[in-house]
Structure formats: C-alpha cells, structure tokens
Amino acid sequence: MSKENTIARLKKVLLNDKINMPNGLMQLIKSDLVKILSAYFEFDKSNLDIVIGNDKDGLCDIKITAKAERIKPPRFL
User: Fold this and answer.
1) Strand (E) positions, the chain?
2) Local structure of 57: helix, strand or coil
3) Helix, strand, or coil here: 56?
4) Angle at 59 between CA 23 and CA 39, to 5 degrees
5) What pTM, to 2 d.p., does this model score?
6) Which terminus of the chain is more exposed, N or C, with fewer CB under 10 A?
7) 61 near 50, Cβ under 8 Å?
C-alpha cells in the first residue's frame, strides 16, 4: 500500500469517526428545536425536518426545515 493510499484511508477513518452521532442525539436535537421554535411559532411538529451531514472537510452541514402557521406575538418580561 502506498503512502498516499494510507493517508487517504486514514482521513476516511477519521472523517467517519467525526460523522457518527451517538444514539439518541438526533431525537434530542429535534426535541430541543421543538421547544425553541414553539416559543416563537405555531407549527406542526411533524413538519420539522432536520438533516445533518458532513462535507468533504468533515464540517457539519445542518439543514432545518419547518412550516409555521403563524408567528406568535412576543412576550416581554
């Protein structure tokens, strides 16, 4: 195996380790987002879509999509 192949393989292994999320993390993220968004919007929680991926450099690409029926009036302290 050449040095370049070894380095490329090591990069893939390290990127794969970085990408893997612990069990239950996606559900925890979704739960937190529902709490936050519910404070500002009236929306159907089943319409909340979260996609977390990684680019070639291993950076997280996070996309959150939700459809709100309306914006709630602000509550000031």
Assistant:
1) 41-43, 49-54, 60-65, 68-71
2) coil
3) coil
4) 65
5) 0.67
6) C
7) no
